[in-house]
User: Fold this.
Amino acid sequence: MLSVKGLSVAYGEIQVVWDLNLEVGKGEKVAMVGPNGAGKTTTLKSIVGLIPPKSGRVEFLGEDITGKHAHDIVRKGITLVPEGRRLFPKMTVIENLELGAFTPEAKAKKGDTLEWIFQIFPVLKERRNQTAETLSGGEGQMLAIARGLMSRPKLLMLDEPSLGLAPKLVAQIFASFERLHEEGMTILLVEQFVAKALSFAERGYLLERGRIVKEGAGEELLRDEYIRKVYVGG
Ligand SMILES: Nc1ncnc2c1ncn2[C@@H]1O[C@H](COP(=O)(O)OP(=O)(O)OP(=O)(O)O)[C@@H](O)[C@H]1O
Ligand SMILES: [Mg+2]
Assistant:
């Protein structure tokens, strides 16, 4: 579904992603893990057209989407739930959700999509008329994910959804990803929470200093001696 080939990305003179190759198959759940500053967010932003690549190629459903506008890429079916949520605090839950349905295709299906989202995140239905600033951290993250789903993506990319959440809420968020996966959603998850991400994912990539240094089945990476020592602790 998604095929990234030889992607390099730079901020001005400073290159932060080097010759990155990454594949996500239809219906697959894939994780990209790595430490602070490894280039995870940069890679995701480059895939969705927010940062132009220096070189390389991004294909989605067989089509070259390299360098296309972010808006067009959403219409083609990729949604990025950004790091740090980016909600509109003074707007209600419903209003924040509606902002996610900005393409004509998503607008047409808005009612159905909302019903679907409220099944996955019942708490958002309860809170639908509250402003986003009144939500707890976990609810806010659910809203950010749900807003991403409003565009009816084929590929959902999540940038550090567990950041700052208590373990119980992390478990809830991951349960919602499992449910989406069971419904056929393709997921690319970026996380610093390595153990959790690799037990969730069917396949994973480890990114360090802008380069993929390991890749394989999630379970296999979880057992990897280097990953255990450096990222899992044991
Ligand atoms: N707008 C920017 N301008 C210049 N350099 C940047 C910019 N954004 C990120 N960088 C640098 O690019 C590198 C990769 O950053 P990036 O945010 O992609 O890492 P990350 O893996 O997402 O890290 P984190 O886990 O902290 O979110 C870092 O060295 C960072 O300082
Ligand atoms: Mg990041």
User: Anything to note?
Assistant: The CA atoms of residues 3 and 23 lie 5 Å apart.
